[in-house]
Amino acid sequence: MSREANIAAQEHLAQNINAGNIDSAVESFAEDALDHDPAPGQGPGREGFRTFWGSLSSAFPDAHIEPAHLVADDDHVCIAYTLSGTHDGEFQGVQATGKRIEVRGVRWAASRTASSSSAGAARTSWESCSSSAPSRGGPAGTACSTR
Asked: Rounded CA gap, 45 and 142, in Å?
């Protein structure tokens, strides 16, 4: 893929997640995409991404991804972002709190065709964002807060 196509794929993903259009959002991933850092319970490939983002958008109906930095070449793309939303439904075993969350993260992808084929992330774990956990930072480069 070209640098421009890699950037467009990430923009497509964020725009569609923000619009709640998960089926369109996950078209950014190859059918057999490999996630090197899957969420708990996330299955393989595009369907695993669909399941994860679907459950996140159900729990956080106002979920919004705000890209902060985007770096790409013909083979890779890296995005630093902030994910925010209101916890209005169960997510990964944590019941709705009604609290607003904000999670910063970094995600990278390597491409081989018109879609992302390999992805990894450095992000705050959900446990550090739950209402039962104190607000605290996650791994280097990530942070979480609840309001």
From this structure: 25
